[in-house]
Automatic annotation (TrEMBL):
Enzyme class: hydrolase
Gene3D superfamilies: 3.40.190.80, Fructose-1,6-Bisphosphatase, subunit A, domain 1
Catalyzed reaction equations: beta-D-fructose 1,6-bisphosphate + H2O = beta-D-fructose 6-phosphate + phosphate
Fructose-1-6-bisphosphatase class I N-terminal domain mapped to chain residues: 7-199
Cofactor(s) listed in the protein's UniProt record: Mg(2+)
Source organism of this protein record: Aquimarina gracilis
Protein's name according to its UniProt entry: Fructose-1,6-bisphosphatase class 1
E.C. numbers: 3.1.3.11
InterPro entries for the chain: FBPase_C_dom (IPR044015), FBPase_class-1 (IPR000146), FBPase_N (IPR033391), FBPtase (IPR028343), Fructose_bisphosphatase_AS (IPR020548)
């Protein structure tokens, strides 16, 4: 049951029975994420006041310049999940390898692994524009009591048991699904409590917003170029509105509320696009589908892709179902 203005804590307890496997372990894990998100929120809000903006001077495994907040958010989530001994493994956009949680009371007996993008939209930090965190949760597939292996992380998105994001925006929200719809909670910063503000979120079936980094137009596949021209045509309810923040979390969040499509296609320079399948696309695809939307690589369902590498990338089209299907038809016609 969902009740508006319920706190996230109440919601987790009341809906625990609907969680897959209902042992309480997943509830505790989501509680830990809620706590880490509050800590990161506190840091993000101070950016500009204290010395936490700008680059660290290191390059991450993605080939990107790590920002101080990338590192801080990564450490906060890892430390919170590790200290609470709540997961058996963690993989992060910011770490070359997955982390095995050792020295637990119940050595390697926790059931879940977490995969995360600790800070999404890093390029927005220094200019005071919304950033986010994305998380994805699976049950381990290797036997309990043994250290996790890469197989626990390389699971297709359709096996996720929960996924969500935090948006550090005009207000801070935690939006998540456990496969039973999508609910959004807004943080009251004075009380440090999240309240259910957006129960049962749904992507409108159609929309009039397209979100894509059009600066890369020249490098896009023909089907995407054709779709962009379609969006700009003066016909029926078009031209559509173009909105692109450059933070996947914020772009998807807006489009889920207003109706729209997000595209990060392959380019002639990056045939697999830019976004990471495990930390960005799978969790967003799970949320999109749970909200009645759709996520595709232009041809196939994101959640059915069997990953082969931790930091694998994929082209990504996600949003209102009719808009995603329109993009797919343009991709098909250009084959
Ligand atoms: P991150 O900050 O976690 O590395 O993710 C950035 C991603 C995504 O959030 C965003 O939509 C996209 O990169 C923006 O890329 P471009 O600057 O190439 O448009
Ligand atoms: Mn990054
Ligand atoms: Mn990201
Ligand atoms: Mn990131």
């Amino acid at each position: 049951m969902t009740r508006k203005n319920q706190t996230l804590g109440e919601f987790i307890i009341e809906n625990q029975k609907d969680f897959p496997y209902a042992s309480g372990e997943l509830s505790r894990l989501i509680n830990s994420i809620r706590l880490a998100a509050k800590m990161v929120n506190h840091e993000v809000n101070k950016a500009g006041l204290v010395d936490i903006t700008g680059a660290v001077g290191e390059t991450n495994v993605q080939g990107e310049d790590q920002q101080k907040l990338d590192v801080l958010a990564n450490e906060t989530f890892i430390n919170t999940l590790t200290n609470r001994e709540i997961v058996c493994g963690i993989a992060s956009e910011e770490n070359d390898e997955f982390i095995t949680i050792k020295g637990q009371k119940n050595d390697h007996r926790n059931s879940y692994v977490v995969l995360m993008d600790p800070l999404d939209g890093s390029s927005n930090i220094d200019v005071n524009v919304s950033v986010g965190t994305i998380f994805s949760i699976y049950r381990r597939v290797t036997p309990a009591g043994t250290p996790v292996t890469i197989d626990d992380f390389l699971q297709p998105g359709n096996l996720q048991v929960a996924a969500g994001y935090i948006i550090y925006g005009t207000s801070t929200m935690l939006v998540y699904t456990t496969g039973n719809g999508v609910n959004g909670f807004t943080l009251n910063p004075a009380l440090g409590t999240y309240y259910l503000s957006h129960p049962n979120m749904k992507f409108p079936k159609d929309g009039n917003i397209y979100s894509v980094n059009e600066g890369n137009y020249i490098h896009f596949p023909q089907g995407i170029k054709d779709y962009i021209k379609f969006c700009q045509e003066e016909k029926e309810d078009r031209p559509y509105t173009s909105r692109y923040i450059g933070s996947l979390v914020s772009d998807i969040h807006r489009n889920m509320i207003k109706g729209g499509v997000y595209l990060y296609p392959s380019t002639s320079k990056s045939p697999n696009g830019k976004l990471r399948l495990l930390y960005e696309c799978n969790p967003m695809a799970f949320i999109a589908e749970q909200a009645g939307g759709k996520a595709s690589d232009g041809f196939r369902r994101i959640l059915d892709i069997k990953p082969t590498q931790l930091h694998e990338r994929t082209p990504f089209v996600c949003g209102s179902i009719n808009m995603v299907e329109k993009v797919e038809s343009f991709m098909d016609n250009s084959k």
